[in-house]
Design a protein that fits this description.
By secondary structure, the chain is an all-alpha fold. Helix content is 75%, strand content 0%. It has one domain (3-107). Helix 2 packs parallel to helix 4 (86-107) and helix 3 runs antiparallel to helix 4 (86-107).
């Protein structure tokens, strides 16, 4: 599976799981559907970004660091808009980014090279 598609799928799956963990915060249970949808979109964006990065840079540590940075940035933006719950939003968002960054570097297939023509 190519790196971008892997990032997209894994980001969406982990983002949905991340959003589902909001159930453990009783104050936000009424908004669980919106949180899951938003976290899924956040995971999609982080996954695509990590996949694109993985196509250009072939380094697992840099992929993890890039995923962490993108996940943390997106989670910070969401937490800032919510005016709170920074730890509860940023910690799992950063972890999702790190996992997707690792997976796209380690398990994503490199793009096929075009055959040379004469």
């Amino acid at each position: 599976m190519n790196k971008i598609l892997l990032g997209l799928l894994l980001g969406a799956l982990l983002g949905a799981i991340d959003g589902g963990t909001a159930w453990f915060t009783p104050a936000v249970r009424a908004q669980i559907v919106g949180i899951v949808i938003g976290s899924t979109l956040k995971g999609l964006i982080a996954g695509v970004a990590a996949g694109i990065f993985a196509r250009k840079v072939n380094s697992v540590p840099l992929g993890i660091l890039f995923g962490l940075a993108v996940g943390a940035l997106l989670a910070f933006l969401v937490a800032y808009l919510q005016h709170g719950y920074y730890l509860e939003i940023m910690l799992p968002g950063s972890i999702v980014g790190m996992i997707v960054g690792f997976a796209t570097q380690r398990f994503g297939a490199a793009p096929a090279a075009a055959p040379a023509t004469r």
